[in-house]
Design goal:
homodimer, Rossmann fold, Hypothetical Protein Tm841, Chain: A,domain 3, Serine Threonine Protein Phosphatase 5, Tetratricopeptide repeat, 3 domains, 6-stranded mixed β-sheet, 14 strands, 14% strand, globular, ATP binding (chains A, B), kinase (chains A, B), DhaL_dom_sf (chains A, B)
């Protein structure tokens, strides 16, 4: 359980502050994360990694000569926002293109994807390769749909070495796809972890059992098994992973493997060493040769107890990259030429103040700001329940994410009101703030939707109820398109679509009445999500959903739409 | 809780096997621990560290160029035996003398001290400096009586650098005393740890509180306090340690400090970074300059949750040693000249088989072997209860230590019987095996006592009851002398003295009857230890003793004397 906390919402920021101070020789802070302190050659492809915090050394611990050039640092277990990713990439790019790598989770895919699109429009050459090493999360045929766990380390280490060798962005991207294709992990969890500020664990594992393939945020695994000896565990991990060993003698693979035995946090070194001594015997028995084993904590989940085994099936190039020198806060190997004499100069991202809108629009903007404050209050009241709901099938961060997003949006709205901004600007900024503050999938969708609603308004005049309804319907429908989910996937879309349909079909009813009906439709639909059967286990939605619990995203959406209805009714 | 285990008794050995395999470039196994793989210069003073296992990286993780030359590796939380220490020192010594360093605990002091005496008799120049950084364990005036915790790391790091600079054994010893004198730690515990194979934690910390100064094996601390914010914790640790800051401007100290923020196992990196960001602000506010902070896990206690702060008040020499290059499994810094091309050759220690004694003595030896097997059975039955009793005031390893010791002694006795050995040889070997198998203070005392009893017997003839009684009285009285404790200290001596007195005073009663009376005296005395008041808090006896629980060493002694009485009665 996390014990050293000031304000839980500030935990990732506070922690990153300490990290950048301790390792100032390696990293310097930028908006959204860190980049190397030392300058890199201009011709060097930049490797930018990232994801939620709470997994140290992943990802910021790998920034330094020989591995990554920058790391985007999200909130605990929540993907960073697109604006964070943009900022880190701008500071890390050496003019030769940037490869972004992260574990394959919905929020990361969404935010990093948005950032890449925006930066490409600015002329950057941005590539993305998702890491998909966890064999528990999908079938061998769907290797590229799996989620990323401790395999993040060998994959990123290898790609960083390829970048350091001076290869082009095309070549580095090819290495990244290749090494991800040759890397397999399987993990077990012995106990859950507790988020900063929370008094209950995110999930639990029954005493005397372990969760086979349980995700690093508590996502469902393959099975709950009875805890046996270390020998049993070694046998299980090795045999499952070797089911996916590529044929020896083909494509340069002849049985040489990189090995990572990774502790999740509370499973300590002595246990990892013991397990490795068993794993190495089994690998040798299978005719494999171990190349530089790493037995350590490289991808943790706060104080979760558990362990994973990762194998990378090497060819000549991959072996050279795996063994190449590296010098980062959390992993050092060999001797790296120190270019630290030249400091990399980075400029802080600044935000312009909002400009004033027409008085009529500014008046409407004030009312919107009041509604956003009400939304913040609702999410704070519901935080605990939403988190619990989310921990059944997701990573338990939904409650906190909604609080962070709505708080940032309300704060942004207050600033816009103070600047006399119009309603369009206020909502565009509030949307960006929500996305930035919350991170995660839901943060991206809420932020995008708010901005889209703003697009339907105007800074030059007040708009009427019909225009408001059209704007809200447009923003709400955009969620379906942005997230790629459809009704029945057990996501917030199950509630947003009925809401938008009801609002659109309200004809010329007054806004308050129309909204009340639409909110009721959303509430009914959200409650219905509890009875949906488990859908296909898609890695991008954190594995299969469980039956019997409503989708927290649909529930929170319906709650906030009810809050808006209440606000409109009191006017 | 430790989850990855085969046979709990083999846990430290199994774990060390994995460690030496993973880090074979750094360390090679020898009897009792590890030494560097690479050869060292002949003129280099050897630094041998050690202690119980369960604290990785302490101590084996620090073996390599720039720090230690060897590490003695005991059982979990139990000091290694003297024979283990001898073996590692013989393999590590470069001909220029060896400095042994370890945290100041009774078992370590006893075993390493015995090893040093024996090796000095062989012509080795052996020095010992105990590490005493934990300000919670004794007053500032008694700094050298305090126990050693995370300060082990900066102290050992500094001394290793002095040895690597090529200083003489006198100079290196002086550096060791100096840096220990300038190093202060204070730790807090949030939750206990669980020994391998155990289902209950060694100790617990009440939810919402922390143990201030609680030892790394659960030894009593200063107080139980309510858990506040990270700011509160930083303030507490910094202010308490700075109470012992030496005057600035004297002895070369001008406010420059080495800083270690150490996690005990389940308190993870993000929390340590956050705490450091607060600590560094407070240190700067106090006018101090931080020299290369280390914020990491360097001295753990299995999966215990907790953290400690260590400051070393630097002068010019200490700062140079602190910053010097090092290359070990758990700590790397700068660039070390690799002498790995030359492998250090070590020879395995071998034990001669026992030679046969006279048939009459061998007959008596067989009976002793049967008694030793009965002792093993008794300790196995009592293991859990003894461990629980020990966890109140000690480190909870007494039950396991007694099982390991008696098992090794019984096995050794079986081998002696098979070789036809006489009773003197059988007991001498059984004593050495007990000490070796158990480690810890109790192991040293039991082993020494058995050997001493053997000294009173003969391999050439059977001895009569009077001679047996004299030998047993002599062996039992030796415990007082070896351990340095007296009656009333709440140690096993509280039971051994009444036992020896009763046996000695039995006149010419038959052996079985005399032993029965002496065993009863031991039982009464052991029970009485529960009512002793807390004695002075001596670091060497793991801090102050608590009232109300009998001393586990006295209890186990009386139990085993009862077992012997039962055996004698059935004959």
């Amino acid at each position: 359980m996390t014990k050293i906390v000031n304000d839980p919402e500030e935990f990732p920021k506070d922690s990153l502050e300490g990290f950048t101070e301790i390792y100032s020789e390696y990293v310097q802070p930028v908006h959204g994360g860190v980049v190397r302190t030392a300058a890199s050659p201009e011709s060097e492809v930049a490797l930018v990694v990232g994801g939620g915090s709470g997994h140290y050394p992943a990802f910021a611990g790998w920034v330094g000569p020989g591995i990554a050039h920058g790391s985007v640092c999200g909130n605990i277990f929540a993907s960073p926002s697109a604006s964070q990713a943009r900022s880190v990439i701008r500071a890390a790019d050496n003019g030769a293109g940037t490869l972004m790598m992260f574990g394959n989770y919905a929020g990361d895919v969404l935010h990093f994807g948005q950032a890449a699109e925006q930066l490409r429009a600015e002329g950057y050459d941005i590539r993305i390769v998702e890491i998909t090493d966890d064999i528990a999360s999908d079938s061998p045929q769907n290797h590229l749909q799996r989620r990323g766990i401790a395999g993040d380390f060998p994959v990123v280490k290898v790609v960083g070495a390829a970048a350091a060798e001076g290869h082009s962005i095309d070549e580095v991207e090819a290495v990244a796809r290749h090494v991800n294709d040759k890397t397999r992990s399987l993990g077990v969890a012995f106990s859950g972890c507790t988020l900063p500020g929370s008094t209950e664990p995110l999930f639990t594992v029954e005493e005397g059992t372990f969760g086979l393939g349980l995700g690093i945020h508590g996502e469902p695994g393959i099975a709950t098994e009875k805890l046996g000896t270390a020998d049993d565990l070694a046998e299980l991990l090795v045999s499952k992973i070797l089911e996916e060993e590529p044929p020896r003698g083909e494509d340069g693979y002849d049985g040489r493997v990189a090995v990572l035995v990774n502790g999740l946090g509370a499973t300590k070194y002595e246990e990892l060493f013991l397990l490795y001594s068993r794993i190495s015997k089994l690998l040798r028995k299978a005719g494999l040769e171990i190349i530089r084993p790493v037995v350590d904590e490289q991808v943790t989940s706060l104080d979760m107890a558990g362990v994973s085994l990762t194998l990378t099936f090497l060819d000549e190039d991959l072996e050279r990259y795996w063994l190449a020198a590296a010098d980062t806060p959390a992993f050092r190997s060999g001797s790296v030429e120190n270019s630290g004499a030249t400091r990399r100069e980075v400029t802080a991202e600044t935000e312009e103040a909002a400009s004033a809108g027409a008085p009529e629009s500014a008046e409407q903007a004030k009312k919107i700001a009041v509604i956003l404050e009400a939304l913040e209050k609702t999410t704070r009241d519901a935080e605990h329940d939403l988190g619990k709901m989310d921990s059944v099938a997701g990573d338990g961060d939904h409650g906190q994410g909604m609080v962070l997003g709505s708080t940032a949006a309300a704060e942004s709205a207050r600033q816009s009101v103070a600047a006399g901004a119009g309603s369009k600007t206020l909502l565009a900024r509030a949307g960006a703030a929500w996305s930035e503050g919350a991170g995660g999938t839901a943060g991206a969708l809420w932020g995008g939707a708010l901005a889209r609603v703003g697009n339907g308004l105007s800074d030059g005049e007040a708009v009427d109820d019909a225009a408001i309804i059209a704007a809200v319907v447009g923003g709400t429908k955009a969620i379906e398109e942005m997230g790629g989910a459809v009704v029945g996937d057990k996501t917030m879309v199950d509630a947003t679509v009925p809401f938008a349909d009801a609002l659109e079909g309200a004809g010329d009813k007054p806004l308050a009445e129309a909204w009340d009906e639409a909110a009721t439709a959303a509430e009914n639909a959200a409650a219905d999500t509890a009875s949906f059967a488990a859908k296909k286990g898609r890695a991008r939605t954190h594995g299969g959903k469980s039956v019997g619990t409503p989708d927290p995203g649909a529930i929170s959406f319906s709650m906030l739409m009810r809050t808006v209805a209440d606000q409109l009714a009191t006017k």
